[in-house]
Amino acid sequence: MTPVPVFLYHSVSDDPPSWLAPYTVTPRTFREQLERIKDAGLSVVPLRRLVSAVRGGPPLPAGAAVLTFDDGYADFYWTVAPMLSESGLPATLYLTVGAIHPPGAQGAGSLLPPAPMLNWRQVNNLDALGVELGGHSQTHVPMDTVHGRRLTEEVVGCKKALEDALGHEVTSFSYPHGYSSPAVRRRVMQAGWTSATSVGNAFSSAADDPMRISRLMVRSDTPPQVFDDWTKGRGAPVAPFRERAATRAWRTYRRLRAAVGHPVGGPPKC
């Protein structure tokens, strides 16, 4: 299986909130990483091309890579989008719908701690510029700890809100924290999402699961050598692979904590 690096970013900023800092790269680092991708001879393709290949469509070009961003921080509009436009690179931005706010107001419908987030006017502008927008749930809850009406609202409500605002279908989903389960993936697919990304800290491939596409998370402390290895298809496993026993055990523990009203926070995991 040819490894396909699907890079996962969160914030690109020189001054992020302290809680977000571990998942933030500076604009200078981000620009350098785009140059490293280019120097490695990778072709950045839209996520939909990877999804098409996974579903048996046209094969990807040699050395394909994908750029994705989670949550919907305001710096995507002011910092990331101009860099991508300058370089002619496509990307997918997954939005936590409850964190998006009207211009001049603040969002209050998500579990994310305070941070500068996009407003709906900016979201529509990004859509007009050709950025692929996807859903990242309604509130950023770990999806595998909710069920029934709450799960439906997170999956279906998120899709409806985005499509009502943008005026067209939205088909790409991303699991908050990378957490999912077979039941969650079935519900996401039933809602009409045709692809979904996790974390995995692994390469994707043309044989990957379209409802659990693996990504490589780029953090503030990702060493340049590790990033270079990723651009060369080294240093991480290649999906698909069986879910780890540790992942299942961690899910069970988090469900129990959520059931007694003491949910577990922490960094994204697969």
UniProtKB/TrEMBL annotation:
Record-linked SUPFAM superfamilies: Glycoside hydrolase/deacetylase
GO biological process: carbohydrate metabolic process
Record domain NodB homology: where: 63-270
First-listed, main subcellular location of the protein, grouped into a coarse class: secreted
Listed GO MF terms: hydrolase activity, acting on carbon-nitrogen (but not peptide) bonds
InterPro entries reported for this sequence: Glyco_hydro/deAcase_b/a-brl, NODB_dom, Polysacch_Deacetylase
Domain of life: Bacteria
GO cellular component terms, A-Z: extracellular region
CDD domains per record: CE4_NodB_like_5s_6s (cd10918)
Location of this chain's protein in the cell: Secreted
Keywords noted in UniProt: Signal
Listed Pfam families: Polysacc_deac_1
PANTHER family cross-referenced by the UniProt entry: POLY-BETA-1,6-N-ACETYL-D-GLUCOSAMINE N-DEACETYLASE, PTHR34216
The protein's name in its UniProt record: Polysaccharide deacetylase family protein
Lineage start: Bacteria, Bacillati, Actinomycetota, Actinomycetes, Kitasatosporales
